[in-house]
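pasting for ref
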Amino acid sequence: MIEDSTTIEEASNKSGLSVEDIASLISGPGADSFFEKKGEDELEICCKYSWVTQNISQKVKLREGEIEILTNLLETKFADHAKDYWTENDCITRDLEHRTIGEWIENEICFLAGFALWFREKEKDGDIDLSSLVSEAVGQKMSADAQIDFDRKRIELLAELPSNALSVLRDMNPAGKIAYRSMDMAIIKGLSEGDDDYAMDMRQRTQKNQKPWWKFW
């Protein structure tokens, strides 16, 4: 049901639940927070997403305008995003035995925020400015930029959010911090493998601190 409006019968076929179970779910207490019912000749139901933003705003401090932007992004873009990245065998699916759908969505937002913020901070005139990252790694001022092969379409879901909101969402759980830091690690690893001078400078700089270079970050 994430991807589009659907009838109760279609929802039953997709989910494996009976028509009676679907009807009970969409008419139970609090169901209006999660489902919208529309249609005159035939009842159709679709998902709402404002409850996700409400849950997030209770965990982290987002500004009022940021909450409005995130709510609008989820309402208008999340269905297509889930269809592109959560589809298996032509059906959007997630393991709901170990996580609720709310946890899945929050984790995806947090994960994407980490990547989106990294690119927001590093991008300059269409290139990725790696000067500060490389300079810190080798212990001297360096100038470096690059074109990075990355699925930028995936992080477009959060493209309209300001940097403050991306930072807050990144730090909401470990997934965002891991995503953000993994970009640094991938760049440094790529440079060290491709350039012996960079590798030697990084080893010398981190060995003085008695830390393996990959933990330096």
